[in-house]
Amino acid sequence: MGIKTKQIAIYGKGGIGKSTTTSNLSAALSRLGYKVMQFGCDPKSDSTNTLRDGTYIPTVLDTLREKSGVNAHEVIFSGFNGVYCVEAGGPSPGVGCAGRGIITAVELFKQQRIFEELDLDFVIYDVLGDVVCGGFAVPIREGIAQHVFTVSSADFMAVYAANNLFRGIQKYSNSGGALLGGVIANSINLPYAREIIDDFAEQTKTQVVEYIPRSVTVTQCELRGKTTIEAAPDSAQAQVYLALAKKIAGHTESKAPAPMGVQELRDWAGKWGKYLLALETGEIRQELTANI
Ligand code: ADP
Ligand code: MG
């Protein structure tokens, strides 16, 4: 592992915006002058699409299945502004473990000392967020990444997945596992959504690194196969991704989070449910930013 290479894992539930956020983060970091590799660790293998005009690249695991003696350079593809793009890929459907696949893919790069050779500043792993099976906990457990960030909206299922991730991080935090950098709040357009995610971060002893609005600019750029940083560099949304990149570039201290227990999380959600209902019925009239 390169001494100066910062390895970051981005987790979150499926469809929450991990790949969109990660690709814009990678693009923004490259704009700031850093050397970046984006390492997709989702069997969907679409992590790096918008860095490469919407195209798919051969995955590490597929390439390893086709032939022996793979040179890591065969599975590294150049993306926007020189971002190095890699997709780990998945195990053969119905057999094998996704976590094993991630280890195999990362091992190939470590053995060939690719991070040092390319003199990378950042390797960003885009990982599917369900720690429940254990396989996807690999970048945390095996000490592959140093810092973990989670993408979450204010929706309960996203928060639930983030809380599960925190349990995984906490579990390995005393045995050299990765620690938590914070929450990247995505699709935050309403004041109460910000309140909910702020409260979740406070309860679990972490922080919100950036609030990213849901934006049609992102949709437009994605439909053109591009990141917002590439296709709409002057947009307000691009400024948000640049601000996120600066914060992550400057981030040094990650911590073990304090996840909520199952009942605690239920009670917490119930409290917010009552609050939102009261807002709707007009029972509570003050600004939406009021504390509950
Ligand atoms: P994941 O990688 O977590 O499965 P994606 O990054 O693929 O999720 O995002 C799922 C969908 O949500 C995509 O179509 C993406 O364009 C959209 N999306 C994510 N974040 C935003 C945002 N901030 N504004 C608008 N659309 C978004
Ligand atoms: Mg994805």
What does this structure look like?
The chain is α/β, with parallel strands linked by helices. It has two domains: about 5-260, Rossmann fold (3-Layer(aba) Sandwich); about 260-290. It is about 40% helix and about 15% strand. It contains eleven helices and eight strands. The protein has an eight-stranded mixed beta sheet, with helices on both faces. Strand 7 (about 180-185), helix 7 (about 190-205) and strand 8 form a beta-alpha-beta unit. Helix 1 (about 20-30) packs across helix 10 (about 235-250). The longest helix is centred in the last third of the chain and has 20 residues, at about 260-280. The radius of gyration is 19 Å and the shape is globular. It binds adenosine-5'-diphosphate and magnesium ion. Adenosine-5'-diphosphate binds near residues 16, 20, 214, 219 and 222. Magnesium ion (MG) binds near residues 18, 42, 46 and 47.
